[in-house]
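Weekly structure sync, notes
Attendees: PL (lead), two postdocs, one rotation student
Agenda item 3: pending single-chain targets
PL asked that the sequence for the first pending target be pasted directly into the notes so everyone works from the same version. It is reproduced below exactly as submitted, 138 residues in total.
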Amino acid sequence: MTTAREIMTSGTECVGENENILDAARKMKDLGVGALPICGTDNKLKGVLTDRDIVVKVLGAGKDPADCAAGELAQGEAVTIGADDPAEEILRTMTSHKVRRLPVIDGHTLVGMVATADVARALPDPQVGDLVEALSTD
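Predicted structure, written out during the meeting:
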């Protein structure tokens, strides 16, 4: 049984909930990623900030990215996956929540991120096809 821990990208960095979007965008550029977990001052995961969020919810809305905090874009409780959860559970979670990236937690500690590409490499083709189809529909 392949687990999230085995297929995740470890060493995931957070953007602080009080950091501005401009700094978050620079961090994404420097790290070469399209998403960053948003971590609170209490070290709890608040959500995930994506490059699409920056474009649509900040720039597209006419907000100044230097004056907008990452925490403003966190939407409710973050969807996560446990480090020891099987790849099939990742598939179910991504499909049911229609998300392409999942923070991986061990207890309450962020230990990595799993993206659809990670799942695609770990699961048989028919399951991957079902995931892609589910994420592509409204």
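Discussion points:
- The domain at 4-136 is CATH 3.10.580.10 (CBS-domain).
- The longest helix spans residues 125-136.
Action: rotation student to compare against the earlier draft before next sync.
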